[in-house]
Structure prediction request, 328 residues.
Amino acid sequence: MTSAVRFLKVSRHFGAVRAVDGVDLEIAPGEFFAMLGPSGSGKTTSLRLIAGFEQPTSGHIEIFGETAEGVPPYRRNVNTVFQDYALFPHLDILDNVAYGLMVKGMGKAERVKEAEKALELVKLPGYGSRRPGQLSGGQRQRVALARALVNKPRVLLLDEPLGALDLKLREQMQEELKSLQRALGITFIFVTHDQGEALSMADRVAVFDNGGIVQQGTPQDIYRRPKTRFVADFVGSSNVISPDVMTALGGEKRWASLRPEAIRLSGEGIEAKVESASFLGAATRLTVDITGSRLHVMLPAGSDIPDIGTAIRLTWQQGDLHYMDDAA
Ligand code: ATP
Prediction:
């Protein structure tokens, strides 16, 4: 099947800065794809390369099987929702949404109809005559979405789309974006530095570091089987266990990761000392010491919480211990 977006050894350097460096990437049609990574890792530059706002220094980009070389942004069938929404403050909402259609030369009656349809899609019917200044942050976000969707792009790019919203609204919009994407079947590619957001929304995640992709896979895959310490640290709250400690535990002399929720208290197993316990509502997090190294243990609600300073024993399933590729 033809990929929606394909990168072949794509680089974008700015002088000595390798913003994007030799990236290979394939995103399937209809996929909800997350680019996850810390600040400066090359996510936004990758998105801008897809949009056509940047050109690769080397390498090759295809969009639905056709080369993107020399194709200007407005002819790429790709639309972007920017983090700051970039709405025109002096235009009303309907004109903001219909703007792209006007530029394309669509007649007024048709463009009003299309813009109204798009506003309905993002659950803002009847808001057309307001100005952006009269809307809440979440509503402005929806307008920005409607303005991109009205052009019926095959690929929608979202740069930290929910970054400006408070936590509750963000969670609500995460669900709405996901169901909208499913209903429309458009390829969504979004940039985030929030691992929870990437894991909960995306079909597949690419983890960026230093201009490169260090791991790509389903959220489950990346969470359970991080390739490197960097991924284990960045995605979730994994225990990263050093080769020395692994040897002391009778394992291989390699770096390993072990998710806190995979560890159980039991009568037998490895001895540990409880250093602290934090009640989190749905779970309790213990910090324990094993052979001079700290581990987090996530106990489900309703578990007996051991006293601080006491010795306990811990077990886990062999399959939950995951060795990583870092040099020992
Ligand atoms: P953030 O989450 O902070 O937006 P990011 O992962 O999206 O980060 P990019 O914006 O892609 O990262 O930037 C990657 C690197 O390229 C950074 O070091 C940045 O300073 C540099 N960079 C990006 N655009 C330019 C430019 N136009 N000129 C020079 N350097 C740039």
Remarks:
- The longest strand covers residues 264-279.
- The chain has a mean pLDDT of 92.
- The domain at 5-233 is CATH 3.40.50.300 (Rossmann fold).
- The pocket of adenosine-5'-triphosphate is lined by residues 14, 17, 19, 37, 39-45, 193 (CB under 6 Å).
